[in-house]
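User: Structure please.
Assistant: Input sequence and predicted structure:
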Amino acid sequence: MKYTTIFVLLCVMNAFALKSLRSKLSIDENDPDFNSDSPFCQQCKAILYQHGDFTGWSAYFTEGEYNGNRFTAVGARNDDASSIKVRGNEQCCTVVYEHGDFTGWAAEFKPGDYNMAAWNAAGAKNDKASAVKVFSNGCPSE
């Protein structure tokens, strides 16, 4: 029981550290706190990457809405993303939008890794993303 409490605290501390340092961090998807089986750590989340091979800058998004201002505040760059990784249970969904006010094209991503080819196949456009929504209750189209 004591170890579970410590693990949850470490997970919470790691989540806050990621949020406060996300523009300077390179997220490692193999980090046990990122992929943990702990219910707390299984929250829906997405990492947006600059390049189509998951390199360049990265920005970390938890459940919520990130309009153009919030999108750039967490470290993403307007019209400069080409791949995404989504983590969480099967109900998790990340929607990437063309414009910062959630208009233009929208592309939905369930948990998985989407390089540039998969990014484009989902309907996203290379270097044209400006907003994100992360849902824990399925995709809007469902």
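The first strand starts at residue 45 and ends at 49.
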